[in-house]
Amino acid sequence: MHTLRLPLKTNKNTEGLFEKRFQLIARIHNQTVKHAKKLLTQLDKSKEYRTLRKEYGELKVKADAGDELATIQKALVADKMNAFRDSLGLSKNAFDKYVAKMQHKYKKHINSHQAQVEAERVWAGVEKVLFGDGKDVHYKKITEFKTIRGKNHTTGIFFCKDTSDTKCPYFVKWGSIVIPVKMPDTVKADLPDGSNYVLESLKHEIKYCELERLWFKSGWRYYANVYFDGDAPKKLQPGRGTMGIDEGPSTVAAVSEDLAILEELAPKCKDYNKQIARLQRQIDASTRKTNPEKFNEDGTVKKKSEYKGKRWTFSKTCLRKKAIVRELYRRKSEYSTHMHGNIVNRMVKNASMFITEPMDFKALAKRAKETRRQNKATIIKKADGTEQAVYKYKRKKRFGKSVTDRSPAELMIILQRKCNQYELFYYEVDKWEYRASQYDHTTNTYIKTQLSQRFKTVGGNNVQRDLYSAFLLACRWHSKKPSRKKCRELFPHFVKMQNLLIKQMKENGISRPACFGF
User: How high is the pLDDT of residue 411?
Assistant: First the structure.
């Protein structure tokens, strides 16, 4: 399945109707969240369920240790827990029935499939709370609802073609309204068969269509996302060879037989951050001027009970700046996606097999739970000029800002999608066994180094840490260790590629000492 996003030619009437339907879908979603929170509270308060959950945990420990009887008993307890949850209404089918009652009130605007999609989204959050690492299900603001989607192309939103209309043959029909689709200029161009991406996609069978809205500083703009059956039209010619990829929170390194890549992910995201921070300071100053009664003397916000629930007031200039901030966030997100796509395309053109070590970026973004003193002493100067060695505490802060700005996980998602589309090989090694950042193929040993050490000596050569890790991944023998024979054969050529790449980067003024080492 693949997607095609096409802009819609809307007017004030259709935009007002779209806004009303997004409000209705938000009401259905949040009412379902309220229902889910109530059921989860009942589940937590139930003594019977808490007893079953405790028993299940004890049996799981025994079953993992190899106790066959505990495995059978664990399955029986799991069935009892499932039956108890079903009796409360904590199931996907029960959520669909609950949503159906609300949808009946708004059937002129929202059909049953569109309401069921929202029920599925809430149920996905409930599943994380019940079976994953989720803590609670949350309400969403009206501005957070970006799409209204159905399940098929037989009801709800339709993507149609009118052969009699030569100027605008494609349109979207949703209930009683018909919205023309603005097709790209490439559709009208006289291109050879197979080279027009949009026309090639339109030849596939339509699975379903959804309405999407994106925020610009002038307001919402609406698009039709058409989901087609089958793979997307191919625009690239995949290369041949093996490429190792070492991704980080803010950089990516990739090495194949004839290509070395060391790049910063979304390098211009800092420019967006500066604009956003400047506008947010102005918004904060304006908000404090127009709402002085809502702030304490120390600058903190008062509780709602202290200012008697009065509404916040904002100047027109403040509202315009808020709109610009929202647009900047959207542009930054689309910019990072675009840059990731460019990197992935270069990789696909060069190789047909991709080896990587998986990284848990969600864990890297979290703050550290414990802080310990550093092993290395820091020399500080006192006011009287004397020096003192101090063992500072490690910061709780980790890589949350980099992960938010650079979206490193999205890079690997795009790569996996390309591999599926072009039928390429994508493999993730066992990072606890492989340990590419610690291995030295010349001595066949694992040496753990500090994260701040970006270069190390291997076989008398100075190699960049990330590039060398990617090189070792490209020389994979099995999931636990690189092939030393392949490493010895390709290492001299890798050193030449690395030195040439670093030289070119320095000449072009590309440097990040903390990540690249230069």
Answer: 93
- What pLDDT, on the 0 to 100 scale, is given for residue 230? 86
Q: Provide the Cα torsion 425, 431, 436, 442; round to 10°.
A: -100
Best CA proximity match to 459, nearest among 434, 424, 487: 487
Rounded alpha-carbon distances, angstroms, from residue 346 to 254, 256, 415: 10, 12, 11
For residues 13 and 239, give the distance between their C-alpha atoms in angstroms, rounded to a whole number.
50
CB 245 within 8 A of CB 259: no
d(CA 330, CA 272): 10
Partners of 422 in the β-ladder: none
pLDDT in tens, 435-481: 888 888 888 889 888 888 889 888 888 999 999 999 999 988 776 78
Gap between the Cα atoms of 491 and 276, Å rounded? 45
Q: Dihedral, CA atoms, 467, 456, 449, 436, nearest 10 degrees?
A: 30
SS3 assignment for 241-295: CEEEEEECCCEEEEECCCCEEEEECCCCHHHHHHHHHHHHHHHHHHHHHHCHHHE
Short-list 10, 16, 6, 12, CA closest to 160: 6
User: CA-CA distance, 269 to 366, in Å (whole number)?
Assistant: 21
Distance in angstroms (rounded) separating the CA atoms of residues 365 and 355:
24
- Residue 190's pLDDT is what? 56
In DSSP notation, 105-159 reads: HTTTT--HHHHHHHHHHHHHHHHHHHHSS--------GGG--EEE-SSSSSSEEE
Residue ranges of the chain with per-residue pLDDT less than 70: 163-168, 186-195, 369-374, 393-397, 479
Phi, psi of 328, rounded to the nearest 5 degrees: -65, -40
Please give the backbone phi and psi of residue 426, each rounded to the nearest 5 degrees, phi first.
-125, 125
Cα dihedral 88, 90, 93, 97 in deg (nearest 10): 60
Structure confidence at residue 164 (pLDDT): 67
Confirm if 147 and 211 have CB atoms less than 8 A apart. Answer: yes
